[in-house]
Write a structure and sequence with these properties.
The structure is a single chain. With about 180 residues, this protein is mainly alpha-helical. It has one domain. About 70% of the residues lie in helices and about 0% in strands. The chain contains six helices and no strands. α1 runs antiparallel to α3, α3 packs across α6 and α5 runs antiparallel to α6. It is elongated, with a radius of gyration of 21 Å.
Length: about 180
Amino acid sequence: MALSAYAPLVLWIALILFFSGSRGSVAETSGFFRPMFEFFFPSLSPEEILFYYVYVRKFLHFTVYAILGFLAFRACVSSPHVSKGSRHDDAPSLTASTPRGDAPAGAPVVGLQTRTMLIALVISLAVALTDEYIQSLDPSRTSSLYDVAIDMAGAASMTFFMCILESRQKPQAAVKTSQ
């Protein structure tokens, strides 16, 4: 396992969980965002600033978890147990026992790319649920499954995008090595 692949993921998770408590509350973060709104949009009323601030916070949920999805996917791709398959790839529970029209007998039912995406999404979901649980314990925060849905939309969007990039890079790499 390469530390360079897992360290950014662990640090990003730590940062998310650091802001799960009161440090990520509206009272704490509005001190940063309110002056920006007032500078760029001086005609907004305090109510309008609060209205738009809610959307900025939801956008940040999406973005923070898209980055988490990217880092989790990146860590999984660099992991030999995920990207190259584990020694259990031929286990009956992971392989097709009879030939199918679209896959030979013994072919992995869950492809490596799908497995990588699923692991990245499970990591993201675990962090999102932990984040919301921590928020539920803090009186200055509110916990919401709606936020988990936004978090997962960000993580899923990025991991899906990374799968597309990976699938396009592999054929190009195979062409270069065969030349």
